[in-house]
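Sequence, please.
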């Protein structure tokens, strides 16, 4: 099983001891998991459900979206996305730094943002057509996304939310997720790329093999960018021994915020305040 270790303001020697202890507790499977990670994405055919449709939920996934930089991680050239930003959006981004990021206060990450922690697709597969799909995220607030698969349209009026209103359908082996109704609070990445409530996104998830899945993500926000732009991200399946773990993070939790570069917040003695 995967082990998560969070260390803040500790000496290097203590860190080494804790890591050694965690590895010892991992048991005999630890070596197999480590070897699987070193080997890279699993090879093999795309798995399918009994009805022949692509199976997305036989593994947990990491990647498939940005963390540090939407522009570079999405396959764009340096400055390409920034050149499409409206002046007000560019000015706003210039005032942002990592210490202000909502995600660091345990608020939702938005779309298409990911974390270093994994997520799992949960499909509805019975003799009847699917009505819903869910994406369960381990990281940040242990949140989930709900995608309506029953052919409904977006409501004419929506309350803006962190993850928006998502409807989905299959185009052959590609899952298409169309989302509107976002609020303007989350950041696309740690650089602070902004958006407005006019944001409309389309994700096109295509499983390429047993261990890899592509997400072609289109961002359309006329309130902040001069034209729609498409990014490409790659998700990788975790070793089969891995499962989603419990992760507790409540709004405005400041634990670990002192590890963010440039942190200048309160301290407790010589140690960062947790």
């Amino acid at each position: 099983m995967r082990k998560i270790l969070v260390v803040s303001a500790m000496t290097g020697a203590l860190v080494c001891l804790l890591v050694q202890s965690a590895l010892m507790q991992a048991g005999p499977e630890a070596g197999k998991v480590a070897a699987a990670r070193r080997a890279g994405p699993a090879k093999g055919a795309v798995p399918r459900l009994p009805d022949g449709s692509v199976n997305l939920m036989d593994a947990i996934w990491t990647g498939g979206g940005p963390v540090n930089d939407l522009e570079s991680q999405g396959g764009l050239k340096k400055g390409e996305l920034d050149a499409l930003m409206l002046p007000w959006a560019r000015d706003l981004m210039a005032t942002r730094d990592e210490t202000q990021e909502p995600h660091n206060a345990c608020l939702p990450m938005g779309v298409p943002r990911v974390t270093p922690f994994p997520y799992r697709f949960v499909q509805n597969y019975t003799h009847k057509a699917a009505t819903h799909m869910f994406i369960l995220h381990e990281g940040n607030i242990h949140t989930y996304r709900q995608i309506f698969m029953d052919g409904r349209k977006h409501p004419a009026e929506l309350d803006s939310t962190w993850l928006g209103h998502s409807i989905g359908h299959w185009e052959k082996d590609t899952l298409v997720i169309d989302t509107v109704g976002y609020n303007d609070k989350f950041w696309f990445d740690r650089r602070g790329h902004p958006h407005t409530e006019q944001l409309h996104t389309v994700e096109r998830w295509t499983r390429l093999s047993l261990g890899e899945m592509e997400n072609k993500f289109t961002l359309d926000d006329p309130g902040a960018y001069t034209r729609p732009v498409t990014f490409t991200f790659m998700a990788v399946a975790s070793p089969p021994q891995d499962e989603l773990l419990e992760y507790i993070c409540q709004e405005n939790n400041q634990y670990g915020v002192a590890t963010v570069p440039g942190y200048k917040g309160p301290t407790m003695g010589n140690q960062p305040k947790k």
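Residues 1-25 have pLDDT under 50 and may be disordered.
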